[in-house]
Amino acid sequence: MRTKSITSFEEILLLELIGKEKDYVERKSTDKGTNSRKAEAWGRITNYFNNHPEVRKRSTEQLINWWKNTKKNAKKKVSSDRKSMKKTGGGPKDNGSKDDNLETALGILQDQLYPEENSNDCDADYIDAIGNVTVKLERRN
Questions:
Q1: Interacting residues of 62 by C-beta distance below 8 A, sequence separation 6+
Q2: What is the CA 134 to chain-centroid distance, rounded?
Q3: Is residue 21 within 8 Å of residue 27, measured between CB atoms?
């Protein structure tokens, strides 16, 4: 039997908990030590989540799957926003529907979605604030 969908309150609580543990949960390394710390972080998230009186009990696997789906939707939104900007020639984007929880997820994922400036990178000057890449052509003599 399928578990009931996560409520808006549960989403907000879960995003808050993931935000506190994001350094472990979103770490890309997969070595034994890192995987152990990720599992511990998800255990803390699950325990705190399930101990809250206003939520349905969920397994760690269910919470991880919810987070993976939320990340996927956040990344789709960023991609859609970028496409919309290109359609308008860089003008105002189509604002569509606004989802505060998705915006919170984007805040947690911003390091992954928007490249950080790197002064040592020769391409650093060509990446603007929303991650669009601009190519400058220089004339060679």
A1: 3
A2: 24
A3: no
Note whether 15 and 104 are within 8 A (CB). yes
CA separation for the pair 80, 75 (Å, rounded): 9
Residue 127 pairs with which residues in a beta bridge? 133
Contacts made by residues 96-102, CB under 8 angstroms, sequence distance 24+: 101/8, 101/11, 101/12, 101/15, 101/70, 102/70, 102/73, 102/74, 102/77
Q: What are phi and psi of 133, to 5 degrees?
A: -100, 130
Task: At 34, list the tokens.
Answer: 């890192």
Task: Provide the token pair at 4.
Answer: 């009931």
Q: Which pLDDT band, with edges at 50, 70 and 90, does 125 fall under? A: very low
pTM of the model: 0.66
Rounded to whole angstroms, the Cα distance separating 124 from 71 reads 26
| Distance (Å, whole) CA 24 – CA 27 | 5
Q: What is the pLDDT of residues 99-122, one digit of tens each?
A: 677 777 777 776 666 656 555 555
* 34 CB-near residues (< 8 Å, 6+ apart): 27
